[in-house]
Amino acid sequence: MYETLLMIPGPTRVSSRVLKAMSKSIVNHRSAVFGEILNDTNEMMSEVFQTENQSYLITGSGTAAMEAALGNVIEKGDKILNIVGGKFGERFMQITETHQGIPVELTVEWGNAANPDDVRYILEEEEDIKAVTMVHNETSTGVANPIEEIGKVLKDFDALYVVDTVSSLGGDDVQVDNFGIDICVTGSQKCLAAPPGMAAITLNNNAWNVVDKTKSKTYYLDLKKYRKSGEKTVPETPYTPSVSLMYAMNEALKMIMEEGLEARIKRHEQAAKATINGVKAMGLELFANEEASSATVTAINIPEGMTDKNLRGTMRNKYRIELAGGQDHLKGNVFRIGHMGNITHREIISTIAALEMSLKEYGYEIELGTGVSAVQETYMPGNNTLEFF
Ligand SMILES: *Cc1c(COP(=O)(O)O)cnc(C)c1O
């Protein structure tokens, strides 16, 4: 059987090196051997976050880190500014409510990026906002938000800056320290190209000052416990971590170090550009405002006369390429191509080629090769600064 090519925004394809790392024997999670692996993994994690802060790994999916971020900061009645332009922005708001915070919502039309001026306006109007939540890469709409510019706005206010980089870290530029991010979270199964099940979080001193003063209403995700265990001579996690996933994260991060973060980000930019050029050449429309388009996932309107079932079903069953559908009200109207993690020109070319065939089979007017040649052009020397992709 062919392996299905995952062109979805997580989980992404995991390299055989990482899969193999997971097959190593399980060790005592409270031993020097594991302590070293944990330390090494945390350090590489901080490098990818581009921060001097400590990072912590949490056994759980990306949402666990999102909840850890807010659960350690919110006490009943605290006001949180939630910037919501898609499914994951909504999730931060729901977590705010779960922890009995009061959400102040900045609604951004799905498909557009948040406007830093709007953030400033709300922070000036509303008193006592304790934290601002922002999703860097809104995976549901294919939008990359201006986290650097919003970070500049937040420098003038006391509110903590909490950023979800689950679908961007390791694929787009996330400079935790330089962008003024106080708490940053990510997950294993997207651009980091590790299996699902691990999350990571990093907090600076501003954030720890708030966490130390907050009576948190979370037990498993109490970050003070992660800090305490991490500070032991032989670092540990408070509870049993997934040892195998820690091996996987360690290996996946090593591969990122080998590629180089900058080269990796460029590779993602190139893949996004190629995908966008390919689908546009086919006459398809992007869902998101192109200026705000993501480096890691592209959302595309399903053309008239085509159904989601036929489109993605053909891609999956005939060509063995898995694409993602739309979420919530975009279901049936939009499909998404994930180009994150271990994605090169090979995967983009195959995906665009199969997309042409799938659409043509259902009567969409297209000359085969139109999209593919646009992808090829994008990767030609002159249009592309990468030596390897
Ligand atoms: C995938 C994702 C998450 C986390 O989802 P999990 O299923 O919990 O890993 C959070 N935010 C964004 C932007 C995501 O893309």
From TrEMBL:
Keywords: Aminotransferase, Pyridoxal phosphate, Transferase
Cofactor: pyridoxal 5'-phosphate
Gene3D superfamilies: Aspartate Aminotransferase, domain 1 (3.90.1150.10), Type I PLP-dependent aspartate aminotransferase-like (Major domain) (3.40.640.10)
GO biological process, one term: glycine biosynthetic process, by transamination of glyoxylate
PANTHER family for this protein: ALANINE--GLYOXYLATE AMINOTRANSFERASE 1, AMINOTRANSFERASE CLASS V
Family classification: Belongs to the class-V pyridoxal-phosphate-dependent aminotransferase family.
Name of the protein described by the UniProt record: Alanine--glyoxylate aminotransferase family protein
Lineage, opening ranks: Archaea, Methanobacteriati, Methanobacteriota, Methanomada group, Methanobacteria
